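User: I'm new to structure prediction. If I give you an amino acid sequence, what do you actually give back? Let's try with this one:
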Amino acid sequence: MGGIYENDRYKLSVDDDDMHAVLMLTPSGDDVAYDLEDVLDFLLQSGIKMGVDKEKISRFIEEKRYYEGFVVAVGKTQIDGENGRYEMKFDTSSEIKPNVREDGSVDYLNTKLFEEISVGDEIARYIPATNGEFGFTISGKFLTPKKGKELSPLKGRGFDVAEDGKTYYANMTGKIEYRYGEINISEVYDFHGDLDMTQGHIRFSGDVKIYGDVAGGMLIDALGNVEIDGHVAGATIKAGKNIILKKGVQGAGSAYIEAKGSIYGSFFEDAHIVSGENLEANYLLNCYTYARGKVNVRGKNGIILGGRTHGVLGVEAQDAGNITELPTMIQVGISDEIMEQYAVAAENIKKIDDELAVLENGIASIMVLKNSGNAPEHEAVYTKMLQAKIIKNAEKKKNLEKRKELFQVINQAGYSYFGAHGDVFPGVEIVFDSLRKKIHTKYVNSIFKVMDGSINILPLD
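Assistant: Good question. You get back a string of structure tokens that encode the predicted 3D arrangement of the chain. For your 461 residues, that looks like this:
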């Protein structure tokens, strides 16, 4: 209803969206008297029915504020309802975030691999959707809000829903995760105390948490994460996900640490380390280290000394080697193992394609016979061929994913480098694939990377 409405006493301006109106008192003579009812009557005749500010009208009349426009009516915008939501009562982040000290080293002691929950704990509460609030225009038209959408009940396992249908409680003690819209609580093998031969090895299908030390000769083999609060001696630790060793490893040459995910530790001495992703530590001493991702040795005392350290996607440390020129190898880039795995995956795909072609031909031949009604005795063979096709397609998909993953690693490795924020001492040997460079003079704050077919040394910004 936007427009201008006026006579010899009033001038009213209404905006196009029918939400605001501005009034001006325009007396035609010196002795014109206004009263509230008269103004309200004019507004009503002009179509203004709601949102009128009577107090402001009275004040303008009393103060005789003529020929001065003022907002006389305001509509109310509808407020749409909010969608239903879940309020989680635990940390849903799956990212491992170690605490970095002032010197740049990491306090792994206070780092968590996973969130733990106890039976009976409240884990989530549902906040229902709201209807919203109605609005109105100054002409009296009601504005209907959009109702919020309700969410489906939470899916997962390890929890129950209260009678109110909104509160969720853990029905077991263990590790809690929120991924892909589901909550899952799984059992965690908690071992309080030191793990040694009197306790026996640990093999577990979930996550393992050790609150004490792990003695030499012990085995921990978990499909999930492994977290150890104490020191690790010459033990074997394997994890299907991540490993965090809060007080580090003193392996005496017999420690073996392997994870399909990342490995974190305060320090590693005389250990063999294999990481499917990244390796982070405050120092490495006489270790054989391989990480398909990146090796990051943190802190102002973050040193790689002795042994061999291989980070496919790069290696970064404070110092490498020392003044005694202890032999120390830093290797960056693709390993023969990755290239072999890539070749195997490619060969598997070709082999499976050949097998699928044979199956397709066989299935097509039997279909011809089936359509002619001459192949009842081949029904069992036909079924087996279909089953074999499904299996082969699944194998092909797995190998395609493997080849894609390896291709990405190979591509990223082309940009990898070794960076030292402090000193690189003589005795260090740097290897990029087939290129090798032995260090004969100390370098400070340097980056080593391949350019134009050779290893170049540049200042590290």
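You can read the tokens as a compact description of the fold. Here is one thing that stands out. The radius of gyration is 36 Å.
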